[in-house]
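TA notes. Do not distribute before section.
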Amino acid sequence: STLFPYTTLFRSPYRWMVGMGLMVVVVVKLFAVDLSSIGTVARIASFITVGLLLVITGYFAPLPPKREAA
């Protein structure tokens, strides 16, 4: 997710996709491995926290606009 602000500056869809791929891998690992061993209340708090972080990241780093053909 640290790649997203740079993609907005450089308008690079490739870097945005790399950042999104890394974020997907981390979220899948979080839900598949890390949340399997914690209690219900902690799991709910984790879902809410991760959801809020994803929304904030999407707000500050939207998909870069497509480049115009030259």
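Switch to the second chain here.
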Amino acid sequence: TKPPFNYVKLNTNASVRNGKAFGGGILRSHEGTLIAAFYKEFGEFDVLEADGLSLLMVSNSVFSERLATC
């Protein structure tokens, strides 16, 4: 579902296969427009760590982007 007006929505997902963790996600505007998407191979982590790394990765990216536009 779309987020409320002037909000964005972040969806992340992570998985582990053969001992290797992967994560990714998408960021969408309140109109449903894609703002950003990402995917990363994290290495040897469990799925909860990979989920956390996915969130950390996107928050660092958004924070860096925000600083670049100030």
